[in-house]
Amino acid sequence: MLDDARVSVRRGSVLLLPILTVLGATAVVVPSPPAESVSARASVNGRTVVLGDSLSYWGGGELRARVPGVEVRGKRGRPVTELPGMIEDYLATEGAPSRLVIALGTNNRAGWSKQDYVDAVSLVPARTEVVFMSVHRTPEVFGEERTRTMKRYSRWMRRIAEARPRTQVVPWRRKVIRNPDLLRDGVHATYERGEDVWARMLARALR
Are residues 61 and 154 in the same domain? Predict the structure, then answer.
């Protein structure tokens, strides 16, 4: 009887082998869901922060009047290369913002690339809304090459917004090209009307 039992087990193994083989193949073919990054899982703090240069410095007052609670970190002359460090510092001290405004690029630097913008944005969680402010310098004041750089930076912003959900670009560059009287020196908004328009456009995007 023991021998009969062994035969039965062996027969059962033979019958089960194809099934196990199929199941094993299925397990290999079906991929596991991709692991979510720590950044993507991070919670947001419910706040809005603007990281900018002199345009944000001068227009910050108008923006605060339109968007209560907005935090404007604008500094005159701030280069675009400070963006990654600013985001890292904010995350370390304040946590991830609900909305991040990137208003940097007017003070361009050699070697800055689209990938640098992408890498900076990737520091915040996927649920953080990102708002870019496009940039411009008039060729009459700063030359064609500098203006082309601003155009290139603005194009990169649009491409990033097209690829990343919850991302948009405020078309400041287009606005001042069509309305050059909004600039007082070829780059900075005029003290009253220009700053008001700058703040109004950004406030509309943050609604």
Answer: yes
Q: Write out pLDDT tens, residues 59-86.
A: 999 999 999 999 999 999 999 999 999 9
**Within this chain, do residues 46 and 76 fall inside the same structural domain, yes or no?**
yes
Same domain, 100 and 60: yes
Query: Does the pLDDT at position 133 exceed 70?
Result: yes
How sure is the predictor about 44, in pLDDT bands with cuts at 50, 70 and 90? Answer: confident
The whole domain housing 100 covers: 41-205
Whole-number pLDDT of residue 45: 82
Nearest to 137 by CA among 54, 17, 41: 54
Which helix (DSSP H) or strand (DSSP E) does residue 170 occupy?
strand 167-170
28 and 85 share a domain? no
Q: Are residues 57 and 122 in the same domain?
A: yes
Name, in order, each residue with C-beta under 8 angstroms of 191's C-beta and a sequence gap of 6 or more.
58, 184
**Main-chain phi, psi angles of 170, to 5 degrees:** -85, 120
Rounded CA separation 36/84 (Å): 22
Read off the tokens for 70. Answer: 């907005």
DSSP string covering 46-84, please?
S-EEEEESHHHHHHHHHHHHHSTT-EEEE-TT--GGGHH
In 10 A of CB 169, how many CB atoms? 23
* CATH number for 139: 3.40.50.1110
- Verify that 23 and 111 share a domain, yes or no: no
